[in-house]
């Protein structure tokens, strides 16, 4: 569905059910250079099991209008404005990578609006190599290859077709390439720069008062599980789940395990 946030069209995937303010809400926030489709399995299940789901396309991504926002804080403020546009007072925020930093920052600065946070593939700092930043700003294919290659663990890289996928008919690395190739020129560079410049992770974590779940890939090369654990230790009420044989793209590499952890954390029953 389309909403208007800060005067600009914003697309949210609702998992096949209308947003109902009477149901507890969950916002799914994608990572750099991606869109709502990375949450395809989780969004539909959660929408049909008691939640109003908003799997967002951030500004300048997917079907949303506007330009990509240049800082984690600006994106976090946009997420709160999204809740206003949807008529929602509070929501649980689930974010991956850049989206995890966004969820963390929103929970720290807008605590009254955030019921809980689930942070996937996250670390206090997410430095980006200058060569990758330059390639991403220039729109070079090498930037996509670096992000997709480093982002996937053995499930993504296994096999001649770039790794099997739990979703029938799909392959992880080719699917990731197609998704990132569809983004507008320069968007990946803006996103990666926002991650690179965000240095408030530990302070933000110390300010989070709501429950927090950390879902970490045991073989994550981009945000190692050790770094995720260290950030979790800064939050008063946090729990950590480390997914074996999983890289940075935890929600697509291990979608069922992610969903199991989310439903437990949000006190939902699967089945």
From TrEMBL:
Residues 26-260 form the AB hydrolase-1 domain. InterPro entries: AB_hydrolase_1, AB_hydrolase_fold, AB_hydrolase_sf, Epox_hydrolase-like. GO terms for cellular component: membrane. It holds the Pfam family Abhydrolase_6. Gene3D superfamilies: alpha/beta hydrolase (3.40.50.1820). PANTHER family: HYDROLASE, PUTATIVE (AFU_ORTHOLOGUE AFUA_2G14860)-RELATED, MONOACYLGLYCEROL LIPASE. This is AB hydrolase-1 domain-containing protein. It comes from Azospirillum lipoferum (strain 4B).
């Amino acid at each position: 569905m389309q909403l208007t946030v800060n005067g600009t069209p914003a697309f949210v995937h609702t998992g096949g059910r209308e947003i109902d303010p009477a149901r507890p809400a969950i916002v799914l926030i994608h990572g750099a250079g991606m869109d709502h489709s990375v949450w395809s399995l989780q969004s539909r299940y959660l929408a049909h099991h008691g939640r109003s789901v908003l799997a967002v396309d951030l500004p300048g991504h997917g079907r949303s209008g506007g330009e990509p926002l240049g800082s984690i804080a600006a994106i976090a403020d946009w997420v709160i404005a999204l809740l206003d546009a949807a008529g929602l007072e509070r929501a649980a925020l689930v974010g991956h990578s850049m989206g995890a930093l966004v969820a963390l920052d929103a929970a720290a600065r807008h605590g009254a609006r955030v019921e809980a946070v689930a942070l996937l593939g996250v670390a206090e700092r997410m430095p980006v190599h200058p060569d990758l930043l330059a390639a991403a700003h220039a729109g070079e294919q090498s930037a996509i290859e670096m992000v997709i290659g480093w982002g996937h663990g053995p499930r993504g890289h296994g096999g001649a077709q770039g790794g099997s996928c739990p979703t029938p008919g799909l392959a992880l690395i080719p699917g990731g390439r197609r998704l990132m190739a569809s983004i507008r020129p320069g968007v990946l560079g803006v996103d990666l720069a926002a991650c690179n410049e965000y240095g408030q992770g530990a302070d933000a974590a110390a300010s989070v008062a709501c429950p927090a779940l950390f879902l970490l890939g045991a073989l994550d090369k981009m945000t190692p599980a050790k770094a995720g654990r260290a950030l979790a230790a800064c939050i008063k009420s946090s729990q950590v789940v480390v997914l074996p044989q999983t890289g940075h793209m935890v929600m697509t590499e291990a979608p069922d395990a992610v969903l199991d952890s989310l439903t437990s954390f949000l006190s939902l029953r699967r089945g």
